[in-house]
Amino acid sequence: xxxxxxxxxxxxxxxxxxxxxxxxxxxxxxxxxxxxxxxxxxxxxxxxxxxxxxxxxxxxxxxxxxxxxxxxxxxxxxxxxxxxxxxxxxxxxxxxxxxxxxxxxxxxxxxxxxxxxxxxxxxxxxxxxxxxxxxxxxxxxxxxxxxxxxxxxxxxxxxxxxxxxxxxxxxxxxxxxxxxxxxxxxxx
Length: 188
Fold this sequence. Notes:
It is built from 6 helices and 5 strands. The chain has helices at residues 10-16, 19-27, 35-42, 46-58, 104-124, 143-163; strands at residues 2-7, 33-34, 62-70, 73-80, 82-87. Strand 3 (62-70) and strand 4 (73-80) form a beta hairpin.
């Protein structure tokens, strides 16, 4: 099972948008369930639950994990394909500003969305771990202190890059390094 499944097309979003399908996903715990079991738990007709399961299965949100024959009937057991399901922000990529060079605010929004996609990609492929993330929340800083942090990070990164030789190194992977200082909307 994947840790994260990122929904990147409208068919997937449409499939998960139905409230009963969300209920179905929330019903799963540690074990796969059949349509019959889900219909009993959710007190819905088997045919309705089966329809919703097939919709979720067809877009890859549920996976078929087992088939059992009971009294000559094949009972299919399903389970979510990931522990977490998120909707990609790139699905709606709309802006009135066509020339990104004209407005720095829109460039940073675009960069932020690209960073989120990179994060989702790394999480989906299992390449993201706790060592990759440094989070410092609720830190009171001035604009000058943020500029100093940014400059310090850039100097250190440049120093690391300049020290290496051009030979291939073991365990080397390409990384996106991002620093966001996001002002909180809460009162101090």
